[in-house]
């Protein structure tokens, strides 16, 4: 079996591994000579994704999440009784739906890249599948850097431009998370069990609803800021430099520059021939994601989780795994789902059929996402060697 080291990933996917403007992806802990390629902004992309310190931190984070799940009496692997109501035929159907979700998520990137530089769809899909697997495996969302690093090696697009398109995806996904969460909170009537807690954790269900509304407000402010940087760049930059500059002029300049580079990925917005296909892929991604979760919940015996409550479950899950996480999103994935289910089901249901739902959702998504990426990686490596 070929090694999954990023350095071999470079060789298998790229014709010119010395292409200027793209960072190398050495093995975690490998030394860098500090002479990374410079971009037009004068900033070197990161020379490595992980160090031994971040690896150690990931192990600590995994242990911390496992401990939280244990003291909260929230099963990581449910007992046999929890699977008593599972309709097993639903699992392969959900796996097929998740495959559509992954394909939609991978394919829509093509339209963001095309607004800057046309890249063949087949290559976009291959890089996206590997990038999504890396995002799942690597801790602290370091996998976000894999796609732009891979795509800029062979195609005539700068690393920062490719990174900007990934940032644009996150902006649009954030908007959709807010929309999904808003619809769910408005029509899903969460909080029927507002007096109960999430397992034995000191987390009341009412706090989950409050946190969801707070996140909604926070994201709205973030999007307004990004919109100002996109439409009124000079004015927004001067405001940031004045306000943040009161504390640190250097930090203000860096923050303003980062926001400018981030919003560069939104250049596709005024052009309908790029925006409409991208939004269609995004709608497909989120719609199938929601319907798949609703189907699997029903298949695990969680009857009554209709479309809008499922929107809340998906929204809370997305917010839970948004921050830098442990490998495989372990811990945050489970706790977020348990917290979301506690909005609609009794504690007995949450740790009963709910634990089977959490386990199966996690395993199917993890295995398929990593599996698809691994198959594509092996195929690319063999094709390159041949």
Task: Describe, in plain words, how this protein is organized in 3D.
With 386 residues, the protein is mostly helical. The chain has one domain. It has 15 helices and no strands. Helix 12 packs antiparallel against helix 13. The longest helix has 33 residues, at 353-385. It starts with 5 loop residues before the first helix and ends with a helix.
Summed up:
The protein has 15 helices and no strands.
Oligomer: single chain
Counting structural domains, the number is 1
| Average of per-residue pLDDT values | 81
N-to-C CA distance: 15 Å
What's the β-strand tally? Answer: 0
Rough outline: globular
**Treating each run of at least 4 consecutive H or I residues as one helix, how many helices?**
15
**Sheet with most strands:** none
- Enumerate the spans where pLDDT stays under 50 for 5 or more consecutive residues: 1-20, 26-44
Percent of residues in β-strands: under 5%
Protein topology:
Layout (H helix, E strand, L loop, with lengths): L5 H8 L38 H20 L18 H18 L1 H6 L6 H17 L8 H9 L4 H29 L17 H27 L1 H13 L3 H16 L7 H28 L7 H14 L11 H10 L5 H5 L1 H33 L1
Helix pairs in contact: 1-15, 3-5, 3-11, 3-15, 5-6, 5-15, 6-7, 7-8, 7-10, 7-12, 8-9, 8-10, 9-10, 11-12, 11-15, 12-13, 13-15
Keywords:
386 residues, mainly alpha, 0% strand, globular, disordered N terminus
């Amino acid at each position: 079996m070929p090694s999954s080291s990023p350095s071999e990933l470079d060789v298998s996917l790229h014709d010119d591994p010395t292409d200027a403007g793209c960072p190398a992806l050495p093995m975690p802990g490998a030394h860098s000579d500090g002479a990374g390629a410079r971009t037009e902004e004068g900033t070197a992309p990161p020379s490595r994704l992980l160090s031994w310190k971040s690896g150690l931190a990931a192990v600590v984070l995994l242990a911390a999440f496992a401990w939280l799940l244990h003291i909260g009496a929230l099963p990581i692997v449910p007992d046999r009784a929890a699977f008593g109501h599972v309709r097993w035929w639903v699992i392969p159907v959900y796996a097929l739906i998740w495959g559509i979700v992954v394909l939609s998520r991978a394919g829509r990137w093509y339209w963001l890249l095309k607004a800057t530089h046309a890249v063949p769809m087949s290559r976009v899909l291959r890089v996206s599948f590997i990038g999504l697997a890396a995002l799942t495996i690597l801790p602290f969302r370091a996998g976000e850097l894999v796609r732009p690093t891979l795509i800029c090696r062979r195609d005539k697009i700068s690393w920062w431009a490719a990174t900007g398109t990934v940032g644009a995806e996150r902006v649009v996904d954030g908007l959709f998370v807010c929309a999904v969460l808003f619809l769910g909170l408005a029509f899903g009537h969460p909080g029927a069990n507002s007096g109960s807690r999430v397992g034995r954790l000191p987390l009341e269900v009412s706090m989950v609803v409050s946190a969801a509304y707070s996140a909604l407000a926070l994201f709205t402010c973030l999007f307004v800021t990004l919109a100002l940087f996109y439409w009124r760049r000079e004015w927004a930059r001067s405001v940031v430099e004045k306000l943040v500059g009161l504390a640190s002029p250097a930090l203000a300049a860096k923050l303003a520059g980062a926001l400018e580079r981030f919003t560069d990925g939104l250049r596709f917005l005024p052009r309908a021939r790029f925006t409409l296909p991208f939004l269609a892929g995004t709608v497909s991604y989120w719609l199938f994601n929601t319907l798949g979760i609703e189907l699997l919940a029903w298949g695990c015996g969680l009857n009554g989780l209709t479309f809008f409550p499922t929107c809340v479950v998906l929204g809370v899950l997305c917010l839970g795994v948004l921050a830098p996480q442990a490998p495989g999103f372990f811990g945050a994935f489970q706790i977020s789902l348990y917290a979301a289910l506690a909005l609609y089901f009794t504690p007995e249901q949450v740790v009963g059929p709910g634990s089977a739902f959490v386990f199966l959702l996690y395993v199917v998504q993890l295995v398929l996402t990593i599996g698809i990426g691994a198959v594509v990686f092996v195929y690319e490596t063999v094709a390159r060697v041949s």
